[in-house]
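Ticket #4471: complex job returned nothing on first submit. Input attached below:
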Amino acid sequence: MIKKIESKNFEIENAHSLHVAKQHGRYSSLERLFSMSSEEVLDEVDKSGLRGKGGGGAPTGGKWRLIPNPSDKPTYLIVNADESEPGTFKDRQILEYDPHLLLEGIICSSYAIKAHHAYIYIRGEYAFWAKRLQEAIDEAYSEGIIGKTILGHDYELDITLHRGAGAYICGEKSALVESLEGKRGHPRLKPQQKEPEWFFGCPSVVNNVETISSVPYIIKEGFVAYRAYGTEKSPGTMLFGMSGHIQNPGVYEIQFGESMSEFIDKIGGGVKDGKKLKAIIPGGSSTHVLRADEIEDITLDYESLRAHGSSLGTGGMILMDETVFMPDVVKNLFEFYHHESCGQCTPCREGVGWSDKLMGKILDGNGTKKDLDTLIDLSFILNGKTICVFAPSVAYIIDSYISKFKDEFYSLVK
Ligand SMILES: Cc1cc2nc3c(=O)[nH]c(=O)nc-3n(C[C@H](O)[C@H](O)[C@H](O)COP(=O)(O)O)c2cc1C
Ligand code: SF4
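Support reply: We reran it on our side without changes. The output follows.
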């Protein structure tokens, strides 16, 4: 079940240092990389079927092709290391145990889109990981792996690490770019057609840490080797997280398409303390909750989760045992989203706060059926009327928890 592509070096002592990283294969994809043209690299990633691992699952090659070629302006690669989705802690494993894997991925990906400057945007609170990454960047500069040339190859690349100030919304790609430009981290209005991101008016791509870290394997071993794992539509592997009431919490790399319940039992060791499973949030708090009786046929890939009314998201699974009271979970989530709304859109700014207050009133024993109806109405107001998908995520929380655990919510109101 476990397939180590990205996590191959995680357990090797000091694999975060360049010396050890190189002994264990880091930067070995570069020889093949520079024997190919940028277009060939793009083709290889396209054919691998690599999909973004930051939550949305967009095809990576397709995103890179949005960059005009040739471009009359400089192009940029921006790596999203904001990782703030509750239940998600996989990118930090890469940054902690194998930061040179990310840097190798950045070199391959920048070459594909002809970028000569890449930025890594890391959440402000992640001081330890920022330090570790900066040390790796400094090592790479001092050994001539990045800078004026790449290990003697005629390609110039600079990498800059930028620390955010600590806001969940800055993980949303357009808010991230705004923040990187020195402005307030507000999501931008979405274009009607697919476009690259625009960083200071220049075409750019924003990709997740794990997505970029998947690229060196594809370049070194070829797209066929990557497609040997996973399913036709969800090829390869992913770092799946398990937290909450699970015997062996952690991050495990498995190929897409494995059974969710087998993953929980065999790798996770089952529910903690022999209790019964009640529910799972499959891919970070923004994904629809699943009842235990819904997961039997689910496989861990984009298509299966979608077919079961949820989504794979970040692969960060939160397990809840039979003792968990769902209205408490919803209150906890509302407090988080209330705090993190950027406030640009009225339905989100007002609606998320209102939902939080209503849930508090209901949990305090002062709620009525009308309050629950208002909450359900609010989910309509939050969905599809805002600049970004933050507000719809809150609508999904209202919809999925109240419909699936109706009795618990109605038991609280008069
Ligand atoms: C509210 C919100 C928060 C997000 N946070 C993150 C994040 O912390 N890390 C991340 O990689 N993507 C995050 N995303 C998704 C990004 O907008 C973007 O889709 C992703 O970085 C693209 O990379 P990928 O194609 O490699 O997955 C977030 C999206 C939203 C709406
Ligand atoms: S939906 Fe919420 S978080 Fe997203 S832009 Fe609007 S106010 Fe900001």
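The chain has 17 helices and ten strands. Closing as resolved unless it happens again.
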